[in-house]
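Hello Y.,

Per our agreement to keep a running log of every chain we model this quarter, I'm adding this entry. I've kept the format consistent with earlier entries: sequence first, then predicted structure.
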Amino acid sequence: MDKSYYCPKLEKTLNFLPQEIKYCCSCATCPGVVIKDSKNLEKEKIIKTKKQLIEMFKNGIIPTKCRGCTEYREIKEENSNFIKKLIGFFYPKETKKISHLIMNHYKQCECKCIYCTEIINHNLKKQNYNALPLIKQLFEEKMIDKKNLTVEFQGGNVSLLTEFEDILEELSKNKCKNIIILTNGVQYLPAVEKYASKMNFRLCISLDSGTKETFNKIKRIDAFDKVIDNIKKFTSLQNVELTLKYITLNGINDNINEIKGFLNIVKETENKVAVAFDIDYRDTFLTPGDKFIAPEHYKELYKEVEEFCKENNILYTIQPQLKTVLKKGYYEQS
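Predicted structure for the entry above:
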């Protein structure tokens, strides 16, 4: 029997990027539709391309740009009736409603973080188009699963997204509640405060430091005090969950004093934040066959974070790349 495949993200996701709209956030080469400007947001073309990709997977054809991606799955069941039922579930005649919108079409940011790939690749481009007209159209045509919709703002800093509050207003009008925002914390977000009574916000600030000096060195902006002040403001809001992230940078912030300074900031919030611990992204951007050997003291740093969070009943997460490094002692690109 011929193979068939399905991809959950293709079914549910629209990822708004600076020059195109894609259907996935996991694969940089995922197929998409080029967007020149706001007038070029052709809903029919975007949905048609999505359906064509779904049909290709259904018929056992993996799109060239999807090959090697870990998201799609092969349907291996030998029973043909089971196959038809399963395909009917994942590939109904009408495309499933969208339940995940990723706002990635803005790249401007006040910070110039030394590990930021957008900085490294000189990709801090101005916002090329507004996503709101298409979002409104999708709501009007009942193509969005309002109850289960999650919207992520993960481009540059959302304070510089011109349509940020207008998008929140549209989401609020349609009773959508799950909002995730990656922000540098340099600017307070009054729109979050405005809609906090109607929505559930999850914010993440990558602080990466416990002192002003190290913050300035990593972020290349003198804004440590402003960020600390905004952390206090965000933790005072209802329906707002805040995660403080620490990206370990070899030779810069990978010392116990800096970690303790970071954890002290967490403590000063009266432990109202969660903690995420990660590794420098540049250490895992390797060509196939290359290997990053992790310094032995990374384990000591993570142990300090883990013990602190356990003692203070704080939710903490360790990112997949760092988990691999701590387990094996290295990270290798396959």
